[in-house]
Input
Amino acid sequence: MGSVVKIQPSRVKQALLVLATPHREAQAKAYIESHGGQLIGIKGDAELDLSLLDAEKHQALIFADDVSLQAVGKKAPGPVVVSFEGNTMVHRLKHGGGKGEQVAKAVGLSKVAADRVISVIDATAGLGRDSLILAALGCHVEMFERNPVVRELLLDGLDRASMSVEVMAIAGRMQLHTEDFISGSGAYEDNSVDVVYLDPMFPDRNKSALVKKEMRVFKQLIGGDEDADQLFDPAFRIAKHRVVVKRPKAAPFLAGKTPSVQIKGKSGRFDIYTKKAF
Output
């Protein structure tokens, strides 16, 4: 049994506490040099107790066997990890059960030939779940994520997926950019990508609605994308066929733009802005 080391609040000077085992220390230091944070090493088989820290002020990014985001404080939810392998959805998608997914319908996969590869930009990738669905269904997906912590989780998930026989082919169709979409969009010509997909974090201030642990941790880390309207114009310029916006059911249209068509679900919807038929 390893020893348990309690992290004292007096030792934590920054909002993001970066923890690293020896074999991941160089990666953690590279992250801090680019994005900031306070490094604390994990020696040997020691376990760290983060329960004494203030959940409203701190979070932990842990570089160990995988890279995880961990809430702190008493009764904190478990770590958030991007894991594409071992995913039950992947198994179902690989065996023909995915064309009925709403995101697949919204992107328009039912309207194109089975042998055609659709190019998609996921401009707000988050944990990459929608990108995974689209890549598993044969799309080539370029992902942008502006939050550096979430981007680090995605990068680690893709690295592990690239070494997994189960999902390496799918991961090969997923490319993660190292900048945010608005900054990176200038490198794309007009009408150069089949579909641009947007799923900005809606600034819902109702804390009782934050049920999933990922959402609780993400809301603390990211908050709402208050500037989400700025995504629409570059997305519409780049898209050849359509822009797809995922929104909560009661949310206003992104940038005040009325969609061409909608796909509605129980708690959310897809607003589709069409430019050219497939």
Remarks:
- The CA atoms of residues 126 and 248 lie 16 Å apart.
